[in-house]
Design goal:
This protein is α+β, with helices and mostly antiparallel strands. It contains 19 helices and 28 strands.
Length: 791
């Protein structure tokens, strides 16, 4: 564990912790953003994809004869062409590799087969929407017209859609290399201790939950523009992503060039939530085509294409059991989690992250988990906001509600009896994850107060008079944030009064340009307005893990602090030359360099201007500029509590959210305005999944029935109440600034809080569970199935 940073005397100017308005908003709101589709290059042509209409089929023949002579067509390419040109598969590394991630293995402890992710397959298609051919033409319309003229002859094969169906004997095989479809099968926890505790338990409560599949539906559709410079032999790719540095290395390998021959530009990203953390085939395809034609090639997806081919999220089935004493003390738990990774294994982050947190916020002495992942003929899944944590939080919190009913114990008292205590921190849970810090019970009490829990009974009586049912749901949560371990920062103080910060973790709407500037400003004692954040260009940014797993502020804060310390030390040496003193006699106090030997003093900006025309000695070459590297593997554990209140119309099943309160412990909060915004957005995503969102695939045909916003229900402002959010700051001992994470906590408990509230409202009918999304029809069906008889 690292000690908390001690700010040099006088260097903390108060930017940290203040709700400073986002610097980037003026640019973004006035149309001056730099999103992928904003870029165009003279002479560019356009790509369109031919996509599979089948969930599983052998490719017998791709006839491009009618398409090639069509107006404007430059070329039509297939999987056979990729193979002939030596195009490699996308090198996904799905198993998390940081030191503290749960170590998933293949069956029997072997390696995990992920399936080669070819840009265009030559043998089979494995999900509806998989690209099988690319048309390149002078205009987008011409490319789309020609794509319709490409004829593909398929031999349809048996398919499998659901995770449980994939496990069944005789199920269709997605990959010949994995005949039973199981690519991961790993046990965690102490089985002997767990079985002993279950044998001694007074009560065992069981449940099975299906946390369905959703998609990120970012505002910015997937887009990529590639250019090839024949003179230098270099490629340039404009493509929004979760991390330009990583995608540069991956895509260079795909097209068979060294990384120095590829430049990736990823500036503004209109939504990610995990769906853009890994490369897409179209990124490699436009690079390949640009090299072949020696002219720029652009691709932009339609919304329907995005629904068919974006990486999707969630899709976990969990069977869970809880052993209890008569007094409500938790003794042990067992869980069996099955993750549907789709047709290719892009990421196992959801299964791994969830595996470490199956016991939630509770002190459960013993636990075992069987974690499995299966292939199906559906779109690949990836990390999606709070990857894996909402699923396991939903399971444990819903199970506790059921246990409270079965034992006749108040649900708050049952939780209070079993929450991990602050004095137990750092707390090692029953599957080996060590929570860093937190005040879980205090969070729950604050959430109750914020939500006016005690006033619920009166509001329920008033709702009853109007013929409505009022319900109240609560969910405690703890989540882990780890992410790629390496980060780098380069800080340069320029004589023009600007401080440039080059950093590799880039935003997709989180406000990094402001929050990173706040940390830099505090540590160097310069105005926030003077700090210029430089991200997203791999010719400038050489190292960086990107934005995922709540890592950005934590890693950025740590590396900015390290670089700032080195810059202050270098600044003392440079100031010593100007002040005609020794570096040992130079102090940096109240944001100024000074020495007893001189009556002059300088802040960083003044010192940069002062030395602009000086010739510095070789050891101080570069002036006020440093580069610092950092590697951090320690996870942090944001935590909190959410309370949701809903009103249900028993005649129609309509659910209206009337109140929502959230308490989130984010560690040190750099900018509460930004954190609250992240919380609000996270709540909306969780509520959306609980009530409306679902990527439904028809089991009998394998056809996705979601292709537009006519089919996919999204939360809107009029569907949501005004949120009441509170920020708690219990510092993490694992990093210099004590930061945990603030971008995902709104989502993590939302599923359980919303569904718990609906079940509470429907308890008068004896309803104990409901399947998400809890649409009006689903709720109405539950009421009718219960016989419409109130208890």
């Amino acid at each position: 564990m690292n000690e908390q940073i001690k700010f040099p005397a006088g260097t903390a100017f108060g930017a940290i912790g203040h709700p400073i308005r986002r610097k980037e908003d003026a640019r973004l709101l006035t149309g001056k953003g730099r999103f992928s589709d904003d870029f165009s290059i003279g002479g560019q042509c356009h790509a369109a994809m031919v996509r599979s209409p089948h969930p599983h089929a052998r490719i017998l023949r791709v006839d491009t004869g009618k398409a090639k002579p069509m107006p404007g067509v430059l070329g039509v390419f297939t999987g056979a062409d990729c193979k002939a040109d030596g195009i490699k598969p996308i090198p996904h590394t799905p198993v998390p590799s940081t030191k503290f991630d749960m170590k998933l293995t293949g069956p029997g402890g072997g390696s995990v087969f992920s399936g080669p992710h070819m840009l265009l397959p030559a043998d089979k298609v494995r999900h509806v929407g998989e690209a099988v051919a690319m048309v390149v033409a002078a205009t987008r319309a011409q490319a789309l017209d020609a794509a319709e003229a490409v004829e593909v002859e398929y031999q349809e094969l048996p398919f499998v859609i659901g995770a449980e169906d994939a496990l069944a004997a005789g199920a269709a095989t997605v990959w010949d290399e994995v005949p039973d479809n199981v690519l991961v099968d790993t046990m965690f926890g102490d089985r002997t201790a767990t079985e002993r505790a279950f044998a001694a338990a007074d009560h065992v409560v069981k449940a099975k939950f299906n946390i369905g599949r959703v998609t990120a539906v970012p505002m910015e559709l997937r887009s990529a523009l590639a250019e090839f410079d024949a003179g230098s032999g270099r490629y340039t790719l404009y493509a929004g992503s979760g991390g330009a540095v990583r995608q540069k290395a991956e895509l260079a390998g795909v097209i068979g060039v060294t990384p120095d021959r590829l430049r990736v530009l990823s500036y503004d990203v209109g939504g990610n939530f995990g769906s853009r953390n890994r490369p897409y085939v179209e990124f490699g395809l436009v690079l390949w085509a640009a090299g072949k034609f020696k002219r720029p090639v652009k691709y932009t997806a339609t919304r329907s294409e995005a629904f068919l081919s974006d990486y999707q999220g969630r899709d976990l089935i969990t069977s869970i059991e809880l052993a209890l004493r008569n007094d409500g003390r938790f003794l042990a738990m067992r869980a069996d989690n099955v993750s549907n990774v789709g047709a290719l294994c892009v990421s196992l982050s959801p299964l791994s992250k969830g595996a470490g947190l199956i016991t939630g916020s509770y002190a459960i002495p013993a636990a075992t988990l069987r974690a499995r992942a299966v292939f199906t003929n559906t779109m690949p899944t990836n990390a999606y906001r709070s990857s894996g944590r909402p699923e396991v939080t939903y399971a444990i919190e819903r199970l506790i509600d059921l246990a409270a009913i079965e034992l006749g114990i108040d649900r708050i008292k049952l939780r209070r009896k079993n929450l991990v205590r602050p004095k137990a921190m750092p707390y090692r849970n029953a599957v080996g994850m060590t929570y860093d810090s937190g005040t879980y019970e205090a969070n729950m009490d604050l959430a109750k107060q914020t939500a006016d829990w005690d006033g619920f009974k009166q509001r329920k009586r008033e709702a009853k008079k109007r013929g409505k049912l009022l319900g109240l749901g609560l969910s405690n949560y703890v989540e882990s944030s780890i992410g790629a371990p390496r980060e780098r920062a380069e800080i340069t103080v320029k004589p023009t009064g600007v401080v440039d910060l080059v950093i590799g973790t880039q935003p997709s709407g989180q406000g990094h340009e402001t929050s990173f500037a706040q940390v830099t400003a505090d540590l160097l004692a310069v105005p926030v307005e003077a700090v210029n954040i430089i991200m997203g260009d791999t010719d400038i940014v050489s190292v960086g893990g990107g934005s995922h797993s709540g890592r950005s502020m934590r890693h950025a804060g740590a590396i900015i602090a390290k670089a700032s310390t080195e810059l202050i030390a270098k600044g003392k040496q440079i100031a010593a030359l100007v002040l005609k003193s020794s570096a040992d006699n130079v102090e940096f106090t109240d944001g100024r360099f000074s020495s007893p030997a001189s009556n002059r003093s300088f802040d960083f900006l003044e010192l940069a201007k002062e030395i602009a025309h000086l010739t510095l000695p070789p050891e101080l070459k570069g002036g006020l500029a440093v580069a610092a590297d950092h590697e951090m593997h320690d996870p942090v554990f944001p935590n909190g509590c959410a309370i949701c209140e809903v009103e249900v119309d028993p005649d129609t099943g309509r659910v209206e959210l009337t109140r929502y309160a959230a308490v989130d412990d984010v560690g040190r909060c750099i900018n509460p305005l930004i954190v609250h915004g992240q919380t609000h957005g996270g709540i909306a995503q969780g509520v959306g999944q609980a009530l409306w969102e679902q990527c439904f695939v028809e089991p009998s045909s394998g056809q996705p029935l979601v292709g537009s916003f006519m089919d996919y229900g999204m939360p809107r402002s009029h569907n949501l109440p005004s949120f009441k959010a509170e920020i708690v700051e219990v510092l993490s001992p694992s990093n210099l600034l004590g930061i945990k994470a603030g971008g995902e906590g709104g989502t993590t408990p939302a599923l359980a809080a919303v569904v718990g509230a609906i079940i509470d409202a429907l308890s008068v009918f004896g309803v104990r569970d409901i399947t998400m999304p809890a649409t009006p029809f689903v709720v109405w069906q539950a009421i009718k199935a219960a016989g419409d008889k109130r208890q």
